[in-house]
Amino acid sequence: MNVKQLAAEKAVEYVQDGMKVGLGTGSTAYWAIRKLGERVNEGLKITAVATSQASEDQARELGIPLVSFSEVDSLDLTIDGADELDGTLQLIKGGGGALLREKIVAMGSTRMIVVADESKAVTTLGKFPLPVEIVPFAWEWTVADLAKLGCKPELRRSGDELYKTDNGNYIADCRFEAIASAADLALSLQRIPGVVEHGLFIGIASMAIVGKSDGTIEIIEVDSGR
Ligand SMILES: O=C(CO)[C@H](O)[C@H](O)COP(=O)(O)O
After folding, report:
1. Could you state a single Gene Ontology molecular function term (predicted)?
2. Does 159 share its domain with 53?
3. Is 125 inside a domain boundary?
4. In what side-by-side order are the strands of the sheet with 152-155?
5. 166-216 confidence digits (pLDDT tens)
C-alpha cells in the first residue's frame, strides 16, 4: 500500500452512516474516494459533494450518492489533500487547481481532515509555490500586484495554453520560499481585486493524517476554532 493510500484510508474510518461528506481533489483524495466507494458498496449510507469535476466523475463511477449544493446547507466532514501542512495545520492547497471549490466545501464542513504523505509536512509554509486563483480580466495587473507581495508569480500553463480552473479562472503560482506569517499574507492577498481565492487554508482543518514511508501514520489534531 502506498503512503497516500495509507493516510486516505485511515481518514475514511471517520466517515459514519448518515454523514454528508465533502470529497477532495488530487492523488491522495483519490484514494479516500476509492475507499469510500468500497464502503458505500458495502452498505454505508452517505451523501457527498465533490470539489472538482475529476472527483465528481470518480465518485459517480463508484456509486457514491452525490447531491447538489441546493440540497444541503452544510457538510459533516471533508477529506482532502494538501501541498504543504505545518504543525498548526495551516495549509497550502491548490496544486491540482481546485482551491476555490476546496475552500468553499471545507469551510462549509463541520470538520476537515487533511490526508497527505510525509513529504507535505513542513515547519514553515512556502517552499511549494502558493496557488492563487485570479480572474482572466486584467490578469497582468493582478500578477503585478502579487509580485509586490514579495513573490515570483507564474501563470500556470497546461501545454501551450494557460491553465483554466473548473471556474474558468487562471492560477498564478507564487514562489515565496518561506511565508513568515500566513495570516498576514492571506489578508494582503484578499485586498487584491483580481484575486478570487488563494491556497492558504488557515484555521480550517482540525486533523491531518500523514502517511509515512515506514508504513506508520501520524495524526495531528488541533482546535481549528470552528
Ligand atoms: O489542493 C489540491 C488540489 O487543488 C490537492 O489536494 C493538493 O494539490 C494535493 O494533491 P496530491 O494529493 O495529489 O499531492
Report:
1. ribose-5-phosphate isomerase activity
2. no
3. no
4. 152-155, 170-175, 130-134, 195-198
5. 999 999 999 998 999 999 999 999 999 999 999 999 999 999 999 999 999
45 and 86 assigned to the same domain: yes
Residues 108, 162: one domain? no
CA of 146 to the centre of ligand 1 (A): 22
Q: Locate 71 and state its grid cell.
A: 440540497
Q: Which domain covers residue 175, as residue numbers? A: 130-192
Over residues 200-212, the pLDDT tens digits come to 999 999 999 999 9
Task: Please count the structural domains in the chain.
Answer: 2
Q: Is residue 160 part of a domain?
A: yes
Residue 173 in contact with ligand 1 by CB distance below 6 A: no
199 is in an annotated binding site: no
At 131, give phi and psi (nearest 5°). -75, 130
Q: Could you tell me if the CB of 80 is within 6 A of ligand 1? A: yes
CATH number of the domain bearing residue 88: 3.40.50.1360
Judge if 31 and 101 occupy the same domain: yes
Instruction: Write the residue with the smallest CA distance to atom 12 of ligand 1.
Output: 28
